[in-house]
Each structure stands twice: as C-alpha cells, then as structure tokens.
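User: Design a sequence. Structure:
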C-alpha cells in the first residue's frame, strides 16, 4: 500500500524536513501534500484522497487541535489517521491527543522513530492486516 500523506505545519522548513524524513524512513509513499495551517489542511483533505495526516499543534489561523476536531466531526475525514508532530509534549497534551484518536511524535525525531510512529498508527506498512 502506497501512502498519500498530508503534512500540515506553518513552517515551510519544517514541512520540508518532515517530508524528507518520511522519505528517509523508507515508508511506501505515493504522494506528499502540504498545508501551512489547519484551514489549508482541511481544504487539501476536501480535494485529495489522503491516507495519513501529520500535523503540528501550534499554527496561525487554525491550530492542529482545531483541525483534528473538525476532521473527527466530518464523516469523510473522521477515520483518517492523524499523527501530531510537535515540540509540545506534555503528558496532558499527549493524553488529550490520544483521546481524539491521534498519535504523537515529539520534535526532533529520527527517520526510524517517525516510521515506528506511522506504522503503529496505521497498523503496519503493507496494508495486509486490513
């Protein structure tokens, strides 16, 4: 299974780093879409089929928490796996994210850690367990 991924972060540099790290991790990638905030991310979700969303928490216009809440409230996006990629890693925040069905990885991270987090979230990388 090739993954169509959406990377949502207000920093173009961080979007590039996350995209490059996804490629370095050896994940089966088909496409990587990017958005600069939650609002743009929802727009991409509305126009593209996406298998996985990687989203930062702290962004202008619409932050990652708001985006996740809107995704979960929208039937078309409710089941799309979300991995939060953030420097903010308090136990309270991580617990709140998990309650919303999102995974979490703290910046900075290695390709191996990112791959492990993605595989844990989507249940493996070959799609054979569906």
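Assistant: Done.
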């Amino acid at each position: 299974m090739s993954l169509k991924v959406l990377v949502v972060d207000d920093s173009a540099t961080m979007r590039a780093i996350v995209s490059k790290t996804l490629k370095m991790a050896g994940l089966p990638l088909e496409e990587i879409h990017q958005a600069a905030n939650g609002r743009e991310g929802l727009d991409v979700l509305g126009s593209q089929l996406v298998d996985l969303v990687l989203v930062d928490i702290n962004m202008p216009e619409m932050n990652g928490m708001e985006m996740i809440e809107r995704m979960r409230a929208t039937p078309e996006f409710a089941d799309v796996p979300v991995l939060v990629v953030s420097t903010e890693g308090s136990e309270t925040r991580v617990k709140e994210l998990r309650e919303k069905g999102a995974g979490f990885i703290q910046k900075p991270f290695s390709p191996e850690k990112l791959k492990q987090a993605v595989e844990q979230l989507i249940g493996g990388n070959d799609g054979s367990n569906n």
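The domain at 3-122 is CATH 3.40.50.2300 (Rossmann fold). Confidence is low (pLDDT under 50) at residues 125-130.
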